Amino acid sequence: MASVNFEQIFDRALPIANNVMLTVTQAPEREQDLLEMLERAMMRGMRERAQLTQIHVPFERFPFMDSKFWHIPVEDSGDTGVLRFFFETPDLEAA
Q: Which domain holds residue 55?
């Protein structure tokens, strides 16, 4: 997925009022592109106050992935082309 398309997805989904799952159905081909996409998702969530809480990656295509990306849990998406990003917005009224 091109960087511009990925940023457009974030523009539409964030900021959010509660929890959001973004699904990318065309995972990057290269390891470096995947890592850059994960980093952009994490940073974008931080800027929008929507914490990235979980990532699903196709382990079949990216077997090097660990169970965490920084502090964020990573699981297998089960589909070779699919990435999923789970964002949560803290409930500010409860604080």
A: 3-14+26-94
